[in-house]
Design brief:
This protein is of the alpha+beta class. Among the domains are: about 200 residues, DD-peptidase/beta-lactamase superfamily (Beta-lactamase), CATH 3.40.710.10; about 60 residues, Arc Repressor Mutant, subunit A (Orthogonal Bundle), CATH 1.10.10. About 35% of the residues lie in helices and about 20% in strands. The chain is built from 14 helices and 16 strands. The strands form five sheets. It has an eight-stranded mixed β-sheet with strand order 1-2-14-5-4-12-11-10, sandwiched between helices. A two-stranded antiparallel sheet has the order 3-13. A two-stranded antiparallel ribbon has the order 6-9. Strand 4 and strand 5 form a beta hairpin. Helix 2 packs antiparallel against helix 10, helix 4 packs across helix 7 and helix 5 packs parallel to helix 9. The longest helix has 17 residues.
Length: about 425
């Protein structure tokens, strides 16, 4: 196996201090943390290819006192994880976070948990969970009819926007549209019927502690840890086997855009979100092991295509491969491992060789730092053709008026 760019080293220091007992699945409350730095291992081939070393990755092992099994994934998992991170230059230039939690043991892996993202349509899952809870409490009628009118029409995802005004839906049908089709018009009808103030109170009752993550309006945010709390809420609701449990499970199993995947034969209960570069998915995976997984990204100006779908599938496939291989660890190791992958600072940024990444980075720098393509080339000491040639092969050319590389007219592509 190719040597990973950051060696998986033994912990430099280990200290266990006495503290209050906390549940392993409440990742915001931990007794003490042990910090170890994973140093970069440089090789001749790596240093020859780039003039700037990737930022240093740090690993934190969180020690918890609880009644659950103290465990960790095998070293082989981390070797493959770091090799996978190396293969995606996205991690050097964009915000990407991942959170994984084993339901049985409470073992948790967090990658860049401090980064926050616009929640987008991931919000529809906890909101529908909130409405189902109202129904169980006798405060919502799932058979109530709602009439689709022009004021509810929303662009974006969904089928209802193309239906005739005056079409009637039950609340249950609207929940299905919101979860399966990510229907924005259905969501608009439900949000008016069940006010957002009640939703905010419900979200806080699940254990969400980040104030921005508990918002229902004014640009609500989401971090990968909060996404795990939402996923845990979905899991617990399904496990109740209440009159609404199976409906929720079926709707979320049929959710479109299967980005997170499980192992062979696994059932994935999910909700994705996608808005202007914020591209995320959260899921409960029922397979060899039952676990929670969230992957959050802000890919900014990058055009999202198969490569970005592959990011979700490659990392979730790795989790599925190793989820059944948790092993007990010494008492001084806990159930939470946090890995931080800092983005390159602007002054350290070098233009990537990958043409898709090159397109995104160049457009970002033109937007934020340079008045023209000529100014960018002069300041970065690069030849214009070294940028324009690979982008031309992608079908993009420089538009002086917009100061961006934009799709070329179809006539020129042909």
């Amino acid at each position: 196996m190719k040597q990973k760019p950051w060696a998986w080293l033994a912990l430099l220091t280990v200290a266990l201090l006495c503290g209050c007992s906390v549940p392993a699945d409440t990742s915001a409350d931990v007794s003490e943390a042990v910090m170890a730095t994973v140093t970069e291992t440089e090789t001749e081939t790596e240093t020859a290819e780039t003039t700037t070393a990737p930022p240093e990755i740090t690993e934190t092992v969180t020690v918890t006192e609880n009644n659950q099994q103290s465990c960790d994934l095998p070293d082989e998992f981390y070797e493959e994880l770091f090799a996978l991170i190396e293969s995606y230059p996205h991690f050097n230039y964009y915000d990407i976070s991942l959170a994984y939690r084993d339901i049985e043991t409470g073992y948790t892996l967090l990658i860049n948990p401090d980064r926050h993202y616009f929640i987008a349509s991931v919000m529809k899952a906890p909101y529908m969970l909130y409405i189902y809870r109202l129904a169980l409490d006798g405060e919502a009628d799932l058979e109530q009819k709602v009439v689709y009118t022009e004021k509810y029409r929303r662009e974006g995802t969904g089928a209802i926007k193309d239906m005739e005004f005056g079409t009637e839906f039950t609340v249950e049908e609207l929940i299905g549209y919101a979860l399966e089709e990510s229907d924005n018009s259905a969501f608009a009808m439900l949000r008016e019927l069940y006010p957002e103030e009640g939703y905010v109170d419900y979200i806080k009752s699940l254990g969400v502690t980040h104030e921005d993550d508990a918002k229902a309006f004014e640009h609500p945010q989401l971090c990968c840890e909060t996404a795990l709390i939402y996923a845990r809420g979905v899991y617990d609701f399904i496990e109740e086997q209440n009159p609404c449990s199976e409906n929720l499970r079926e709707h979320m199993t049929r959710s479109r855009n299967a980005m997170i995947i499980g192992g062979e034969g696994a059932e994935v209960v999910r909700k994705y979100g996608w808005y202007e570069g914020y591209f995320s998915d959260m899921a409960v995976v029922y397979g060899e092991k039952t676990y929670l997984l969230s992957i959050m990204t802000n890919l900014d100006l990058l055009e999202i295509d198969k490569r970005e779908y592959d990011l979700f599938r490659d990392f979730s496939r790795l989790i599925a491969k190793y989820c059944g291989k948790l092993t007990e660890t010494p008492d001084h190791l806990g159930n939470t491992v946090t890995i931080n992958i800092p983005k390159m600072e602007d002054e350290e940024m070098v233009l990537p060789k990958d043409p898709y990444m090159l397109l995104s980075v160049v457009n970002m720098k033109l937007r934020d730092n340079y008045p023209s393509f000529e100014a960018l080339c002069e300041d970065m000491d690069v030849r214009a053709e070294d940028i324009s040639a690979p982008l031309d092969k992608l079908g993009y050319g420089y538009d002086e008026e917009n100061n961006q590389f934009v799709p070329l007219p179809k006539e020129k592509e042909e």
